[in-house]
Predict the structure.
Amino acid sequence: MRFFQPMNQQGFARTLVETRTHYLLSPGLISIDLPQNQHNLSGYWNMPFPPQYCENIENANSIKWIFPDKIQSRVLTEEFLFSIQPFYPAFVSPKISENDYNNYVESFLSQSDPKNEIFSLPLPFIDHPSLDLILETECSLFILNGFYSLFSNQNRFTETMIKLKERLPPDIGLYLPGPIPPSYYSFLVYSGIDFFDTSIAYYVSQKGLFLTESNTYPISKHPNCFCPYCSEKPPNILGHNLMVLQNKIASIRYALKENDFRRDVEKEIHNFVPFAAALKHFDGKFTKNFQKRFPLRINAPLRCIGEESLYNPAIVEYRERIKERYVPDTNSRIVLIIPCSAKKPYSFSKSHKLFGQAIRDGLKNTRMLSELIVTSPLGVVPRELESIYPARFYDIPVVGKWSEEEINISAELLANILQNYPKNTVIINHTNGKGYKEIIEYVKDYTDFEIIDTALTSSPTSSVSLSMLTNTLRELDEQISQNGSSPPIIRMLKAIADFQFGKGVGEILFKSKVKIKGRYPRNREIYIDNHHVATLTTADGFLSLSPKYAQNIIEIAKVNVEFTAERVKGSSIYAPGCEKADENILPRDEIFIIHDGKVIGTAMALVSGVDMNKMRSGMIATIKKKRKDDEN
Amino acid sequence: MKINKEFARKIYAIRQKQLKRRSKEKNLIAWVEDHRLRSGKGKALVFILPTKGCSWALSKSGGCSICGYLYDNPQNVDFESMISKFKETVKSKITSDSIYSVKLFTSGSILDKREMPDELLQKMLEILNKYDQIKEIVLESRPEYVTPKKLDFISQTISPEKIEIAIGLESANDEILRNSINKGFYWANFEKATKNVLDKGMKVKAYLIFKPPFVSEYDSILDTLNSAEKCIKLGVDTISINAVAIHRGTYLNELFEKKHYRTPWLWSLVYICKEIKMKFPEVRIICEPVSGGNERGAHNCGLCDEKLIKMLKEFTLSQNIAVLDTKVKCDCYKEWKSYLIHEKIELGDPHALLN
């Protein structure tokens, strides 16, 4: 059993907790000294200082973890040993020869209890085959050795981190030792680093450093600070510096908890140019690696301020799912393209209420109309999906100017969605402005649809445009006859189910007559034949299914976890019970626990499906509903 | 134990480049300095004799990774002028108002007859033997030349109790000798040589290196303490702790220029001296860091360096441990601690990141 287990993943950023007590340890700081206070300190180096006479130069040092007294007796171990001097005798760490490395690995493996040992991994050996042997020992903490040299080379940094993170199971803690400025922490946590240490705080001499959470200054020249440490005479710079580090870790932990961490990262990369470039690499070349570990089922505001937000893994995943899983209602004959609104969900905004009125004025049967909201950075939001994350939660500073990238992304997605509509569908473009115009031009180039513009001359909410929309719809209403379409709420349920569980799921789940109890903003309870089958959660806009009902879709669902036992005991699913998890599972997703083709429960994933498959110990999901025996 | 061939080859390559730049001829250098003799404070007359240089450094094995003393030796040796200058110098520098220790350094092994022919050594010793105020004569050599035969030869000219054989052991840890220094001999060789010397009633001084390459400063403190203890238990009564200074044309210099190595902290030296003196009060400890306070020598933050170097000098002269207890306060004391722990974990220079 490994000492750590991941929770609350957001890409490679995650929190690590002690496996048995679930006590939060990372992202954390390791004090290089016996700590004065323990705030956000995960542990400390237990090294006699200065070194005392002793027989053996390779004396055992350790990291002692800091736990509250009451759980102390239950933790797997209180300390990790650093018994062997890595690479001695050796060449300077990044240059250690293979021979020396092999010797180190060999002596590491010969330790009596390697699972409580700290392994020091030098940069050149991250792909070395011997790593597998180390992993088999269940050793849980790796020191990354010589990784500073990567900071200035964004290409190598990103490639190395990806290689490393994909190679290592997710329950291994990575410790990057050294004087790392706190302004780098967020990005490094995002890259997958779990532990830092307090050493930078100790650079306090004349040539030393004065830290703030976003910057590093020389001691001779820095902004005033009025914290209690700085108010001491003479100022206690070490105390101040330590406090800054602890505060930084606190804010990272908070952002992770509130699912708002990506924004921290986007903010922080502005402090250091190579990291800004590195994030672009992560978002470009390696977006998949992050996407499959990024939760979608969250209910935190999503502020998209910078260009980076376009490639927020959650947003990229959203766009991909729309492309892959969104099936337009078969009875749609008219598609209305409208702009987004600041208020979410859109239909609660003033502008969308006006559009709604104009539609009802124009059409007798509004069900033959589909609405697509064009927006950045999401691209396109079908009306059916306006209440899910991220559509209901994003915010963006709108100045009416679209960047080329935004235009391309939205246009491409819009063209892609429209291709799923029958050829004779009428498209109405009720948008106005240069950006929208370019998007529509693109769509015209790539599709054969007839597109009617209704807001070319003035704002879409102006009475001119609105009445033009109504009139256009009225004309169409007379030409097109259509009936039998499902009501908006059913279309919404189907779209959400497809988005959440996989294409085609909605059609199966909601083909019979559905009864809905409860109204927004309360959760809506969904009944079929007087059986409760699902809940539409208002908080995040997603569905929770009853296990029996989930049984109908396991053939095509992409959230299945094969479980080894017939029955789920307790309230959690542990890694050893997981035979195979669908790699589409994202952290926090609703998942189906399946044994022998039978859904035995539904659960909330704690980690992504990819990582479930890589874990050998620890919790991977918490049970939401168990299937009762009489539900056969 | 065989040498680390890969390591030796690298050192040899660096050495070859630099060796050509040596000057053709060199004069004998000599100076007088304050010195702590066994019998009390006095003076030392130090000779640097321009021999052809250390046989080990000149060998195909490349010599020690840290040592560039060889480059001070001339390409051509003129023994005649050497001996006449030696005579002159002794005559002019030795005064009757003090006791003296005469140190005969060749940047190699004076007991190696290829470096210093026996008859010349004998002549020099004869000259020194005429002065009663010369209480100690220090002869520097690698252990392989410290044979009973050679020692007997010396005893013929000069009474053995005056003789101190200085051996650059560097470390009592064979791994360090082999893989960090490429010393070419090991603890057992030193042990044997020391026994030879002590058997003849002579004294042994051991040089210990502080912070060779590939050893963290933290571990080097441990190693120095252990090595000192081992030497003292063997009967060595003088320990000279030599903090590494970067010599040009050495393997270490290349590491240093790539920022893979920081020269040791003065705090560490003060600590080591104090620890050894506390445990072995009767042992003479010499610690005078070469180019102290410099980037290329033992140094701290720049503010407290001078004070600490002065403190070490005073301690070396007085052998009074109280000197080391003088409170020198500096903010960099905290950095020292952080640095050492870090360097141990990472075996790299944490400062490299900050620069």
